Structure formats: structure tokens, C-alpha cells
Amino acid sequence: VALVSLGCPKNQVDSELILGRLREAGCEIVADPDAADTLVVNTCSFIDRARAESVEALLDAVAWKSGGEDRRVVAAGCLVQRHGDELSAELPELDDLVGLDEISGVATRLARLPASAPSGAAARLPAAGAPRGAATGLFDHAAPRLRLSPPFSAYVKIAEGCDQNCAFCAIPTFRGRARSRPLDDLAAELTGLAREGVVEANLIAQDSTGYGRDLGLRDGLAELVRTVEALPEAPPWVRVHYLYPGRIGRRLLEALAGAARIVPYVDLPLQHAHPDVLRRMGRPGSPEAYLRQLEQLDRALGGAPGRRSGFIVGFPGETDDEFATLCDFVEEAGFDAAGVFAYSHEEGTRALHLDDDVTPEVKEERKVVLEEIVAAVAEERARRRLGEELDVLVEGPAEDVPGAATGRWAGQAPEVDGRVLVESGAHLSAGAMVRVQVTATGPFELSGRVARLERAMP
Ligand code: SF4
Q: Among 178, 164, 367, which residue's Cα sits nearest to residue 284?
């Protein structure tokens, strides 16, 4: 079996769970589809662009199927959860469809398929093409898993689903209501990762600050931070992703302030800053409130953490003035990295009923303008780190800079943020931790030389 994993890290964890189940059932997992007889495509359904990419990957998989004998294609993930019925009608070549709640049974389903499945086989498996609605399932640390990240790094999904009601977002309609994994389950997973030599654990969810509410915890994320701190064994770097503004209370700030394992990193997707746009988006906040929260997080995390956010431009009704407020805010707040997205109407969302009145040209223009601001403020923030010494997790040789290694300091998350170039570091092994003195900077990049080796890869 080969698997193509699309979408976000939350989907990557699902891919890892699918592969874990298949390996447990005796399947051989290969990277090259041409060495496989079954290709699983784990799809994304976040926005139209992601859906188009997923459909393209499915069409490629169907073409792959027709290029050999006894080949099977399985679609999995968010697109199946959301549009499984349409998919099976439009793509009868699919041999099975596996929704979010069907992952644990993926191996059994595969075993029930004939080796060479005729077109339309999916329709004969129970629930393959049926509408699925919102997911309700949750896995635990005992679920078999084949990690796709490098050996030194892992994603830990602390919760599934989301209870927020952002007007532009359809995720709760198919990922379902928030379901948190119990503290002891997460503790067991983190301990296991540390024993496997994982240096960096990235805690992810749709809304991490909502962690534990469904379990009756009042300050769930604060509890989780304290649990992580109290573990006898845990990865030395634990990074918390996807905080929700307005939900960062005193107890969370106190827990973060005393936490040695939680890295100095703030991931706060804000989406906008103008209060009227935020109100239309169904989100709380204002520039002043956000600046205050960022300052509080800085203080809790000890000075100048890496800072990431995400913004949507061209939301229905966004005026030039409202957009200008967003730009001013980003300039004033400063981020080391931020994703900028042009708004598009999404089925199943409240914003669908608003007039999508910002033209595509204006959306694109605003996206470019805001991206330029993000790069300029990121460069300015990087410059302030000149001369600093930072612990850097080495990822491997830098392909574009001969002799150098590429890595990340704790304020940079894998895949989405910038990098640290380690001069003359190509010999360093992936997973090593080195102390680097920063000697040069760019918008999303720091570079420097090794001051000392902190920890070799185990
Ligand atoms: S917090 Fe808002 S944007 Fe994020 S997943 Fe939940 S509803 Fe969607």
C-alpha cells in the first residue's frame, strides 16, 4: 500500500493512523505507488483550492489504477466525509471510500475488496458512498500509528473537531463537535514519543484553547501544560499550535510561564483585526485586545517568542478602511510568519449568505499587499535576533546552500515557518540540537554558525 497525504497536520495524523492499521494487518507500506497494488489518497476539504488539489490527486490515482493490473484506489479523509456520495457517483473507479470515523476499520474494509475490483466496487461496501455528516470518533495512544514526520518530530492531535462558529469555516460541519483526548492518554503518547527519541512534539487541534471543555475541565489547556511539565519523560520541545483569541485566560498564561518544555512559540490565527469584520466573521476581538493578548503571551513565554498568525482578506463587505486597519495592526503587532488567504465562499457556512462583494482582483491585490507587510515585519523581527544564541534542531543538509545544514529554532514550527541555516553544518545529523549564534537574517530566515553541539541524535 502507498498513501498520498494531503492537507494539514491534523490530516497527516489521520494518514499515520490509516497506515498504522494497515501495517498492523500485515500490509507492506511503500513510498512508491508503482511498487504498490493499493493507493490510498487521504484528502483535504478545507477550501476550494484544497478540494481541487484532492480531486486532482484522485484523478491521478485513477489513471495510475488503469496503468497496471490488480490495482485499487481508496479515497479517505475530509473530502470523503463531506462529499463521499458525490465522489462515489463521479468516480466509480474508486474501490472504497473511508470517512473520518472509519479509519480504525480501514484494514478490514480493504481485506473485503477483491484483489482486482471492478468499477463501482465502492458502492457495494457498507457506507462507502453514503452521506456521513459530522464525525464523532476519537482515537487514543494505543491506536497503531506509522509516523510520517522525521524520526525526531511528531504531531500530537490533542482534540478532534471544533465548537467555534466562525462564519467562513465549514470544518465543524464535517470534523464535528470538539472531542478532547483525556490527559492520561496524551501523557502516555508523549512519554512514548520521548522513549522513541522524538525531540519535538507539536500539539495540534482545530482550537487548542478549547481543549478539555467537553471533558469538564475549566482550563483544559492549562491543565495539559501542567501535565506535560510533570511527566518524568517527555520530548524536550513541546509546541502548542492554534490558540483561539479571547480564550487565553490567566490560568493558561500562568501555566505557560512556568513551563520549561513548552517552547517560546505563539500560534494565534487571528483572521482579521477590524472589529466590524471580526463581528461579521463571528469572532471576538479588536486590534487593542489582540495586541494585549500578544504582549501577555510574550511575557508568559519569556520575551520574544516566534509568532505566527493567519489572516483572511476580502471577507464579504471588507472596505478599504477595514483592510487598512488589518495592515496597520500587522505592522504594529509584528509576526515572524503568517499565512494570508483570499476569502472564498464555502458551502455549509454562515458567510455563504453574505454578499461576496469584494472582487477577485481586489482580493488578490490585498493578499499581495498584506503578504509584503508580513515579509517586511518578519524581516525586522529577524534582524532583532542578530547576535543571539539559539538552540537549533537540525533537519538535514540545506539543498540550496552548499555545506550548510537547515534547521529550526524553537520559535519556528515544521513545514510552515522559516528556517535557520547552519553554516558549515552539512555534516550534522538530522535530529541533532546545536547552539547557533545568529550572524545574518532574512524575512523568514536566520543564519549563523555553531557555537556548540547540545545534543547528538540518539
Ligand atoms: S476556530 Fe473557527 S476557523 Fe478554526 S476550525 Fe473552528 S470554526 Fe473553523
A: 164
Q: Which of 264, 263, 161, 256 is nearest to 208 (CA)?
A: 161
Assigned C-alpha cell, 191:
512519554
Three cell numbers written together for 431:
535530529
Distance 312 CA to ligand 1 centre (A): 13
Predicted confidence (pLDDT) per residue in 84-109, tens digit: 888 988 999 999 999 999 999 999 98
For the chain, the helix, strand and coil percentages under 3-state DSSP, each to the nearest 5: 40, 20, 40
Residues listed for the chain: 458
Is the CB of 206 inside a 6 Å radius of any atom of ligand 1?
Answer: yes
Which residues of the chain carry a pLDDT beneath 70?
114-131, 453-458
Q: What is the pLDDT of residue 112?
A: 83
66, with CB counted inside 10 A (0-12, 13-18, 19+), is: exposed
Q: DSSP for 330-341, please give it.
A: HHHH--SEEEEE
Q: 426 vs 99, 388, 405, 454, CA distance in Å?
A: 42, 21, 5, 16
Is the Cβ atom of 171 under 6 angstroms away from ligand 1?
A: yes
One DSSP character per residue, 125-186 reads STTSSS---S------TTS-----S-TTEEEEE-EES-----TT--HHHHH-S-EEPPHHHH
Q: DSSP string spanning 242-305?
A: ---TT---HHHHHHHHT-SSB-SEEE---B---HHHHHHHT----HHHHHHHHHHHHHHHTS--
Counting ligand 1 atoms within 8 A of each CB, the residue from 10, 157, 162 with the most, and so the one to mutate, is: 162
CB 310 within 8 A of CB 270: yes
What distances in angstroms separate CA 298 from CA 185, 303, 318, one per listed residue? 29, 5, 30
Pocket flag, ligand 1, residue 245 (CB < 6 Å) = no
β 389-397/433-442 pair status: antiparallel
Q: Hey, is 386 helix, strand or coil?
A: coil
> For residue 131, what pLDDT is reported?
66
Would the CB of 162 count as within 6 Å of ligand 1?
yes
